[in-house]
Design a protein that fits this description.
single chain; 366 residues; alpha+beta
């Protein structure tokens, strides 16, 4: 074989080896791509991935993604049953007949409350803030015969923070995930057990909380104890203020007496002066005294509602005063709206105090 032929042979071998090396590299890349693609595909079909994505959805305010990984229909339905059963179990004053009536009522309004709660949760995910129903929503106020604000507070949702995800146990298309949470009001740590199921398309969803009622039973007595202590500490302030307010109501009624149902200019001025010089300062004085009291962690909600009641009442009277002095019907309308809101808040406060008094393991308050 001459030199020229030899060189050609060597060159062809080199080209063949390079092609083989390139083919191996391509096959390796394809194999790695298939492996990682399969790995990514498989990873997305794990309970852990679903929990991670649900948490990310909250951070990114992605309500659609959150709903993809959390079956809100089942979560709210099971959660509602646990919560309402817990509410009834804590009221030791209920007779068998009354308890049965309440159970029937909660069954009747369940569709509206669970649907509304889903909307509330999704608004929280989308906005990052908890907000109550507005406009013509049936859950606004007490249209449904229940104070939804109070209902939401007793669910503990708004004061529960996610700490981390613990062990996940998988059994076929079902799984149980440990979710570490903390009650922000009392600082109590708890491990929720989230039931999960695999959907037909392969992704996983949280379906309900297995021990949600246990969580309520752990937190509720702690909150009740703090509320009871707070009520006891503030009782002298409330009693003193109530005595003052009783006298002021009598004075207000006397100032509003008329012969023909209409208030004269001078009479309106006297009423406005009384509200401005006596009623509003008395409200602010009571609130200032309440603000001086150390509020136990679990009583923060009650203290907040009392403060809101004071602020709403003061604002209502300020609009009423403006209406009196300027003879403006629109100011009377605003005052009336605010006073209705204040009444709803005061009913809520009374409900909290009553609930605390009759709750199990908490002595009746004086």
């Amino acid at each position: 074989m001459d030199d020229y032929t030899w060189e050609k042979t060597i060159q062809r071998r080199r080209i063949r080896r390079r092609r083989q090396a390139l083919l191996i590299l391509v096959l390796l890349i394809l194999a790695l791509g298939a492996f990682f693609g399969w790995h990514s595909y498989a990873e997305k079909r794990t309970p852990e991935y679903a929990l991670e994505q649900a948490a990310i959805a909250v951070q990114k305010k992605d309500a659609d993604s959150f709903r993809h990984y959390v079956n809100l229909d089942l979560v709210t339905s099971r959660g509602y049953d646990d919560l309402t059963a817990d509410l009834l179990s804590y009221d030791t004053t209920l007779t068998a007949v009354n308890k049965a009536a309440y159970e029937k009522f909660y069954i009747t309004v369940k569709p509206q409350l669970t649907s509304g709660t889903q909307d509330t949760i999704l608004r929280r995910v989308s906005s990052g803030e908890w907000s109550l129903p507005e406009g013509t929503d049936i859950l606004k106020g007490r249209q449904l015969g229940i104070d939804y604000e109070r209902f939401l507070a007793r669910s503990q949702m708004r004061n529960t923070s996610l700490v981390g995800i613990g062990k996940v146990t998988r059994d076929g298309t079902a799984a149980t995930a440990e979710i570490e949470v903390r009650d922000d009001w009392t600082g109590t740590s708890f491990t929720l057990e989230a039931a999960m199921e695999q959907a037909t398309d392969g992704h996983w969803q949280v379906t309900y909380l297995k021990n949600y009622r246990d969580y309520l039973d752990t937190i509720a007595p702690l909150i009740n104890k703090d509320i009871a202590d707070y009520i006891d500490a503030t009782k002298p302030i409330i009693d003193d203020a109530n005595e003052t307010f009783a006298h002021q109501r009598a004075t207000f009624a006397a100032l509003n007496k008329t012969k023909d149902g209409s208030l004269g200019t001078r009479q309106r001025e006297r009423i406005a002066d009384f509200l401005e010089d006596d009623v509003i300062p008395a409200l602010k004085k009571r609130q200032a005294a309440l603000d001086e009291i150390d509020v136990p962690n679990g009583a923060g909600y009650l203290a907040q509602q009392r403060r809101l009641s004071t602020e709403t009442t003061v604002s209502a009277w300020q609009h009423y005063i403006k209406g009196l002095r300027e003879d403006r019907p629109s100011e009377y309308d605003t005052a009336e709206t605010l006073l209705k809101q204040e009444l709803a808040i005061d009913l809520r406060i009374d409900d909290i105090i009553k609930h605390t008094a009759v709750s199990k393991n908490i002595p009746n308050l004086p």
